[in-house]
């Protein structure tokens, strides 16, 4: 448990940041944080004023409350962005700030209800009752009169309303109403109309009104007839009646028409009457084959209810026709979509065209002035297959392709709940045949050695897998309890994580089972045999049983279980055509399923029941990788976003995990409503039907309009995408071994290129084996990336196993100098100041050019052995990568060539070469192994030099300097900007800090980190990796140098507070990822090049040994060229001594810079002065007086006094406000950091 001194660093690494949206979510998160920090009561109620007569205990309590109030206010400030902060900046208490946020963003009660605040059950019930239609009026009255609404549950109300709706449907179905398509009834007999009437008097009134309307219509028709006959006499023999289709009379005079008018159905009038114009047809006619084309319909209607896709029979409407007669519709169904078809009527013919002006059909004008078409409706028949084993195959896929014998056993012995009866099909599962293919297992029937839980645990690591998982892992670790056969699985990135995972596993299972682990059986892998693993097992009393080497049968339970997991995972991935990057999800799902599968040793139980004592339920199982549609709550929905998202589910537990376009900001799976689309590809049984005559349509096939509402995919589209994604992914991974690389042409070509380079340089020749041992070689694969992250090339390197070499026998000297990064910054600053171009070259296979002095043999490279001479070995003429002496051999080779063509090696920096006696022919070369940086005043001389280099060595000319040793160089018209943005992004990605909240400073002001912290220990390897990555980032980021140096002091035993501090630095980098160093030109500085430095020190800042921290930085021509932040080696007794020692460190750096500048032949008169903000330290350096405050200072630190007395160093006093090195000695506030940055780059 952390003590009080470390509480300030115990804040969560990722605090929420409020930007004015989702205030309710912020409240929930902040209350948890307040409660965790023990300030919730203070934030809610505030701090009461202290009474004047308060005693000491009350005063102490008040001080503690004030501290908590400040702590709560600090948390609030950290959790709001800059815009929100301006609104609470005046608040001095946590309660005041929190109430201000609530007042601004909380809103009143009505607004909260409108925006989605939780509504009580009474409000829901009242809302439902008010929203019901008139058909439910009397049931609403009954509910309000008979029940107390405040006690009525929403479920009870729903049940009552559904029962009433069902009764309405039954009553509607009992009515024998003809379909709505019929406008007139042609049934004979007046008595049939009377059964629709509910009162005789009401029927008579309606009948009289209908007869009157018919009479008026008849008079009007007679007058029209008289007027027509006056013009031309019509031959009645040619007149055909529309009703009875007989000749000799009109439809208005038809006796059948008169009967129908008199016997028309009397219907109740509805609130909404829809008018339409319809033709009439007789009941005796086959209405299924006759359709009338009408462009003026207000509704689409049919008399066949089976043509609807969805038909709601609870909704009925009254249809009114042109003669005021009505019929009832039996329901409303799905409506067809507009197809943008066009209709043309010409010369008594109607033609229907599609959107592309393609003729669909044509209909002639009939005798009754309508366009009638006849369509033969053919009953659908299955002409291809029948599928009889539907649910059997579904459960086979749901259960991760478990064999049918196992499924039957689960059901037969009732080992699980909710599993239906399964029949074993005759066909074979294709995915199982492919994924589970293996040699026949050895026969063995060993008795179980354990008699209780955790008596014996088996463990093994599986991997590395070819593809990195979605979580960035390459391995999975399993633990199996022998007694229950229950399996636990952990995904890990490296084998070094096994020990940490085992400790967490032990703590979890021992708490669950109330038993302790007695024995652990593993193989002899290094992940299990480390000293810390052995020490932990010894302390916990665990017997660690390590199997014999190369005998996996001794650890058979773990090996077999890993194989079962991989078989099931492969089957599920292949069954859905998913890319291999989802192997971790598939493996986790497999373990979840295996724990619910039968095993031989447990007889009638599953591992889950044996471990927990309860039978598992499998009713929630879904097919792995099935398509699903997830409801998106309105609070998380953007404008114009659909209410559902299309995802893929992974069945790892009863709650579902989603993999869609956005997987990082997701809603809780238990609160979403999902619809699964479980489609599996199953073996099918083909039943060939007898040959039948086939009627082929003569018109184009038109898809139903409803199909246009959906996004369509082919059955195999998911599989194709999966294969493409897998290929694209595998093309960008680095193979681990030769077998992986040989499967990909790009890596095979890279290996061939490496062998060609070796043979071209005459690096080796084939000889017979000698008494001297030949060194093994191996292939190393690396992707070369551009600054933007794109792949530049695939590089395969043949490396000798140099760690097998022995000093004095296989090699002597190994040292090879390279240019230091601060030297490279100095050269870049000089080039930028003078406006010189900078060139970059890369030597191809540089180490292959270095001749060897020793006798060295290597084995033939795997995969490229010479046929028929496999037993021979290679003797090396020149070095190979991996040999101890290879760097020195290459350095001697290029050093000799450069000196031969006139270059001089700098004495102060052996990685820098200079050529030329004047600025006209001046060339500077920086050498870093096989990377060359060239600059100078004369471009012609540089081109000549590059030509001679490329004639001597095979090189890549990379052009102007843009990316060198992980640093990016951005050139402008005047200046050069150095940064490491790409490298910083890689750090955040590597340590999963991409989505972290930003921090405004690299370290908290006043942070007191100590080795004596009582926080829990963290992973040492992870901590060292973080520190190592951050230290290289300091090459262009002086603002984090002190913070990184401070956290690097705890790498031996890092604790949680130290890891939080390191992660805070990465959070700061996230917010300042574009920062770097500016190298100005002479045009920007407008003066002669000059140099000056700043030296500073704190006083006993280290919490453990009270040593001070030295910080210095140097400027050249307005550019920051070098800096340092390190702990002093002595304990300073005064601030004067601390500053004096710091100035001596800076004096050494000053002397080296002046020597290097002199050798670079830029300006022999450049003197670098040193600025110090402590006058006592300056006086101590200027006056060699030994007194009580300086007599104990070690002699080496008096180098400062010697340089000053010899007038080789000038000390100058500067005010603390402009002391730039202050950023390198202590944690500072944001305002001070910004001020110093501005001074550095002005």
UniProtKB/TrEMBL annotation:
InterPro entries noted in UniProt: DNA/RNA_pol_sf, GAG-pre-integrase_dom, Integrase_cat-core, PolX-like_BBD, Retrotran_Ty1/copia-like, RNaseH-like_sf, RNaseH_sf, RVT_2
GO molecular function annotations of the record: aspartic-type endopeptidase activity; nucleic acid binding; zinc ion binding
UniProt key word Iron-sulfur: no
Compositional bias of kind Basic and acidic residues: 168-178, 188-200
Region (Disordered): 168-232, 1082-1104
Domain Integrase catalytic, chain residue ranges per copy: 443-615
Keyword Zinc attached: yes
Location of the CCHC-type domain: 241-256
Keywords, sorted A to Z: Aspartyl protease, Hydrolase, Metal-binding, Protease, Zinc, Zinc-finger
Domain of life: Eukaryota
GO terms of biological process kind: DNA integration; proteolysis
Name of the protein in its database record: Integrase catalytic domain-containing protein
Species of provenance: Trifolium subterraneum
Phylogenetic classification of the source organism: Eukaryota, Viridiplantae, Streptophyta, Embryophyta, Tracheophyta
